[in-house]
Write a structure and sequence with these properties.
4-stranded antiparallel beta sheet, elongated, alpha+beta, about 140 residues
Length: about 140
């Protein structure tokens, strides 16, 4: 009986390993890396990440539903002040100061330090020679 249980556990583990889809931590790392680029890691952090669903579209494509919170580290007013003080500075990457302010305000509105917004998203992952990668 014990051997049968061990065999079942091994088969389940083998099937899980053969499923070939990225685990939740890998997905979180890819989504976090995509969100927190071009200076946006100074604006907010990502918390409470969860994969809520996923399916294999093909052998090389995996579609994943995710949910997470964005927690603001700066207020919108602070961002405006920073950009006014140094409109060509590196704090928001390659984006122009007017463009980034417009994009931030249209996506997030007015916000204060500590404000939290819940986000859901559907991301596509492609299996490459170097493993799974987030589609841009």
């Amino acid at each position: 009986m014990i051997m049968k249980k061990i065999a079942v556990v091994l088969v389940v583990a083998l099937l899980a390993a053969c499923s070939g889809v990225p685990d939740n931590k890998e997905i979180e790392t890819m989504v976090r890396g995509s969100l927190l680029t071009d200076g946006l890691d100074d604006l907010f952090t990502m918390e409470n990440f969860a994969k809520t669903n996923g399916f294999r579209e093909s052998d090389n494509v995996y579609i994943v539903d995710v949910a997470y919170d964005l927690v603001f580290q700066k207020s919108f007013i602070d961002v405006v002040k920073e950009i006014r003080e140094d409109p060509t500075g590196p704090q928001y990457g390659m984006f122009g100061s007017k463009f980034i302010l417009t994009a931030i305000q249209s996506n997030f509105g007015q916000f204060e330090v500590g404000d939290r917004i819940q986000k859901t998203d559907k991301v596509t992952l492609h299996k490459t020679e170097n493993g799974w990668q987030l589609a841009e």
